[in-house]
Amino acid sequence: MADAAATSLEAAVERSAEAALDRIGAARAAIETVIFGQARVVEEALATLLAGGHGLLVGVPGLAKTRLVETLGTVLGLDGRRVQFTPDLMPADILGSEVLEESADHKRSFRFVKGPIFAQLLMADEINRASPRTQSALLQAMQEYHVSVAGERHDLPSPFHVLATQNPLEQEGTYPLPEAQLDRFLMQIDVPYPDRAAEKRILLETTGASTPAARAVMGADDLMAMQRLVRRLPVGETVIEAILDLVRSARPGEGDPAVTRHIAWGPGPRAAQALMLATRARALLDGRLAPSKADVAALAEPILKHRMALTFAARAEGETIPGLIAKLTETLA
Length: 333
Hints:
CATH class of one domain: Mainly Alpha
Strand order of the largest sheet: 2-5-8-1-9
Number of strands: 11
Order of helices and strands: HHEHEHEEEHEEEHEHHHHEHHEHH
Distance between the termini: 38 Å
CATH topology of one domain: Helicase, Ruva Protein, domain 3
Radius of gyration: 22 Å
Strand content: 15-25%
Largest sheet: 5 strands, parallel
CATH architecture of one domain: Orthogonal Bundle
Low-confidence stretches: none
Helix content: 40-55%
């Protein structure tokens, strides 16, 4: 009886996956008609959303980070909003506030006016330019999926995702996110410069009389169904052990001393949870129904990078977090 139930579950997952693969393929194709030469960035952003998490996009100005988030919202059929973070932005500007109203019979009452956080896909543009108080208000909502104003709880819509951006160049007048808040982001997605061919295509297709426009290929319900599917995909014992080995080896005192002596602090269990979900999502994006150790290696840097810190001595010696993660992933082969 148990074997029959397991077989039935596997068949149901396989049918759901086949339907999801068609939609995922259509979504990637629609995104690539607007975003050129950023296949890895698009893949990691989609994996973040399929895994049900939030992403931090880091790149210099002009690399289409805003356009990517807007395109994702359109293609996935999500209600998207954008907030430009500035030093004078207050928590109420994001969460919402209560206003005093007077009715026709002169009775006064408070009414909650929702802020822009009540969206399915929120772009927090240059999140490190807002004060720590405002950052904390957003990041708390990201973790708890609701906001509390005047003692009243207000649930956020489903699905709810935040894609925040940071400019790594200009640090004057910014408030770097504390490590505990960075941990709320499932991935840190680094956005590089496009290669020559992609930049040529950008020139040709975005400076004419018309520019490419994204189109919706699915809706919020479809995305949530895929997120449920991701959690049902099987993960082999070797992949689970690879995730544990990688995360634990990135902590001081637990891995190879030649590597961990450079690490001031390492990733916690949330990093392992993120890898578990994101590897499933990446496998689905690649048309597979189970993740492999190659998925773990590919996602190690975006998931671990913002959850680790170097010692002062390591920085003085020229060590980097990506370099250390590369050494750790070599053991997964």
